[in-house]
């Protein structure tokens, strides 16, 4: 019964690495660039290079690779579905048949495409987990607030959005812990969460959800009161203890990421021509 | 065979991740049926981790643990049976209340045991009475309409309704006013004396420990550092101070009196004993 063991996505791992020291804004920008690259890449060669690049970043960030890969566990089901759907319902006409069972056909082309799209999902999760593993939630929301600041004129409540995100992120572990505690308390009274059909399992959650909501509302109330007691009035005239400052290393990191992303999108035939 | 028997019990949280943390190390401890044991220790010493092992909410990551004859190092141990025998009351147990009425909330445990409604009703009435809540007056009320102390007692009744042989309580009096505290602790003492329950009490309060328990286990940094009769442990005020723990107010007073030259007996933990000790020291008999 350790919920945090299974939810590694979105968890910050403090380390003293060059990746951790980057400004959150440049990391967010780099993740955005890489995400675009993941969708633009059309060949396995591109994904090969992207994987090498990500491995380099992982090494530099001092995050254990195994731990990063564990972040894939929650999307495993989605990944399997993607693979199955793409193999059997690709809509690709013709091609080399690898496997056939009645109307169900798997062609070589469909399998390749399924793997390709599946890997796209993996790459996306890895890229975003690298961001959250190396950036504390506070830094992350600070970065987002600064990025949104120019849009304030258009009525985007940058500070309020960032504050909501900070609070939400801050309370994920608290609520997980709370859930774990309540589940344990009910288990001590004979509750079983892992037995029975879906309906029974859903009903078994009522004794967990009711106290969880009660405590979430209580916490919200207390936090709002505590913030008001300290004269919180939203973003007006707020200064911050840690100002974000871009350093030369941010420029270097971002330039490298952009350059690398261009390289990833070079189609395979072009590589063949270039390397000849 | 002792009721609870840990040998070199070790627990590591999040084992195999960068966040792993050793919470218990080589804990060897045995509790006999009918004992009333206090567990104290500074924050983070592993008290909560330890007690969660006693009803298999946590499993040892190393060492041996037998509770009520059930071997908990075995992954296929009969956990359900164990959880019925060992009742665990968490800190702030009122946070686990969820039903619409006090009756239904206390009935949750017995219903999980698949008892028939007659027997459930019997157990609800019995356990509410044990914690001093009148089932007829409170049974139909919403648990969320009760006072803090009442909610806590209802929550404890919810555990007692399982009819455990062992009751483990984590800071049962925390956050209550002095009167509420006294009531809860008095009821726990009565459960031990009248019902013969084996009780393990985790507490921060040395005064509580002095009043209630006979044996005290001191945890620090995941290890058992002292284990013995309360009086012996509180005589080691200096060792406790090193761990960041104090001694009961009366023991502290006696220590200071001795320090200023009044030869009172060091073996004094309660107000009544203190009265006798001071009179003796002053030769007032």
Automatic annotation (TrEMBL), chain B:
<dbReference type="InterPro" id="IPR050095">
    <property type="entry name" value="ECF_ABC_transporter_ATP-bd"/>
</dbReference>
<dbReference type="GO" id="GO:0042626">
    <property type="term" value="F:ATPase-coupled transmembrane transporter activity"/>
</dbReference>
<dbReference type="GO" id="GO:0005524">
    <property type="term" value="F:ATP binding"/>
</dbReference>
<keyword id="KW-0067">ATP-binding</keyword>
<dbReference type="InterPro" id="IPR003439">
    <property type="entry name" value="ABC_transporter-like_ATP-bd"/>
</dbReference>
<dbReference type="InterPro" id="IPR003593">
    <property type="entry name" value="AAA+_ATPase"/>
</dbReference>
<dbReference type="InterPro" id="IPR017871">
    <property type="entry name" value="ABC_transporter-like_CS"/>
</dbReference>
<comment type="subunit">
    <text>Forms a stable energy-coupling factor (ECF) transporter complex composed of 2 membrane-embedded substrate-binding proteins (S component), 2 ATP-binding proteins (A component) and 2 transmembrane proteins (T component).</text>
</comment>
<keyword id="KW-0547">Nucleotide-binding</keyword>
<keyword id="KW-1003">Cell membrane</keyword>
<keyword id="KW-1278">Translocase</keyword>
<comment type="function">
    <text>ATP-binding (A) component of a common energy-coupling factor (ECF) ABC-transporter complex.</text>
</comment>
<comment type="similarity">
    <text>Belongs to the ABC transporter superfamily. Energy-coupling factor EcfA family.</text>
</comment>
<dbReference type="InterPro" id="IPR015856">
    <property type="entry name" value="ABC_transpr_CbiO/EcfA_su"/>
</dbReference>
<keyword id="KW-0813">Transport</keyword>
<feature type="domain" description="ABC transporter">
    <location>
        <begin position="4"/>
        <end position="246"/>
    </location>
</feature>
<dbReference type="GO" id="GO:0043190">
    <property type="term" value="C:ATP-binding cassette (ABC) transporter complex"/>
</dbReference>
<keyword id="KW-0472">Membrane</keyword>
<dbReference type="Pfam" id="PF00005">
    <property type="entry name" value="ABC_tran"/>
</dbReference>
<dbReference type="InterPro" id="IPR027417">
    <property type="entry name" value="P-loop_NTPase"/>
</dbReference>
<dbReference type="GO" id="GO:0016887">
    <property type="term" value="F:ATP hydrolysis activity"/>
</dbReference>
<dbReference type="InterPro" id="IPR030946">
    <property type="entry name" value="EcfA2"/>
</dbReference>
<protein>
    <recommendedName>
        <fullName>Energy-coupling factor transporter ATP-binding protein EcfA2</fullName>
        <ecNumber>7.-.-.-</ecNumber>
    </recommendedName>
</protein>
């Amino acid at each position: 019964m350790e919920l945090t063991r299974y939810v590694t996505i979105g968890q910050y791992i403090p380390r003293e690495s060059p990746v951790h020291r980057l400004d959150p804004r440049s990391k967010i920008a780099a993740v955005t660039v890489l995400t675009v690259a993941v969708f633009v890449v059309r060949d396995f060669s591109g994904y090969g290079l992207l994987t090498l690049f990500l491995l380099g970043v992982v090494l530099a960030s001092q995050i254990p690779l195994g731990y990063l890969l564990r972040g894939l566990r929650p999307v495993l089901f989605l990944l399997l579905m993607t693979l199955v759907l793409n193999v059997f319902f690709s809509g690709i006409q013709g091609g080399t048949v690898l496997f056939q069972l009645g109307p169900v056909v798997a062609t070589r082309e469909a399998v390749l495409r399924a793997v390709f799209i599946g890997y796209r999902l993996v790459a996306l999760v890895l890229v975003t987990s690298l961001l959250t593993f190396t950036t504390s939630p506070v830094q992350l929301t600070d970065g987002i607030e600064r990025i949104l600041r120019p849009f304030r004129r258009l009525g985007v409540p940058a500070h309020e959005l960032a504050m909501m995100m900070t609070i939400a992120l801050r309370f994920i572990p608290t609520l997980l812990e709370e859930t774990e505690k309540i589940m344990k308390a009910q288990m001590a009274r004979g509750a079983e969460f892992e037995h029975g059909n879906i309906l029974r399992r859903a009903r078994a959650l009522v004794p967990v959800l009711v106290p969880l909501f009660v405590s979430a509302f209580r916490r919200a109330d207390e936090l709002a009161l505590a913030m008001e007691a300290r004269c919180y009035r939203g973003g007006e005239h707020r200064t911050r203890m840690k100002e974000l400052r871009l350093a030369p290393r941010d420029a270097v990191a971002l330039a490298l990421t952009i350059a690398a992303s261009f390289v990833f999108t070079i189609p395979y035939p072009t590589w063949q021509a270039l390397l000849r | 065979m002792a009721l609870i028997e840990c040998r070199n019990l070790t627990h590591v949280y999040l084992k195999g991740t960068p966040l792993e943390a050793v919470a218990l190390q080589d804990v060897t401890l045995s509790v006999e049926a009918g004992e009333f044991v206090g567990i104290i220790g500074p924050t983070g010493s592993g008290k909560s981790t330890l007690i969660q092992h006693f009803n298999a909410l946590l499993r040892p990551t190393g060492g041996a643990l037998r509770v009520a004859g059930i071997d908990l190092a075995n992954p296929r141990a009969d956990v359900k049976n164990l959880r019925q025998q060992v009742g665990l009351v968490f800190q702030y147990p009122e946070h686990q209340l969820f039903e619409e009425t006090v009756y239904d909330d206390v009935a949750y445990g017995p219903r999980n045991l698949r008892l028939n409604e007659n027997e459930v009703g019997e157990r609800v009435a019995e356990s509410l009475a044990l914690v001093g809540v009148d089932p007829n007056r409170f049974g139909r009320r919403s648990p969320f309409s009760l006072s803090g102390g009442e909610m806590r007692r209802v929550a404890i009744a919810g555990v007692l309704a399982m009819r455990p042989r062992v009751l483990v309580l984590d800071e049962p009096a925390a956050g209550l006013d002095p009167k509420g505290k006294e009531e809860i602790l008095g009821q726990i003492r009565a459960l031990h004396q009248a019902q013969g329950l084996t009780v393990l009490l985790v507490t921060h309060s040395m005064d509580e420990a002095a009043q209630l328990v006979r044996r005290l286990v001191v945890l620090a940094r995941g290890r058992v550092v002292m284990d013995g009769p309360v009086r012996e442990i509180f005589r080691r005020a200096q060792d406790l101070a090193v761990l960041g723990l104090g001694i009961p107010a009366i023991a502290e007073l006696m220590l200071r009196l001795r320090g200023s030259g009044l030869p009172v007996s060091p073996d004094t933990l309660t107000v009544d004993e203190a009265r006798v000790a001071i009179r003796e020291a002053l030769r007032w008999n």
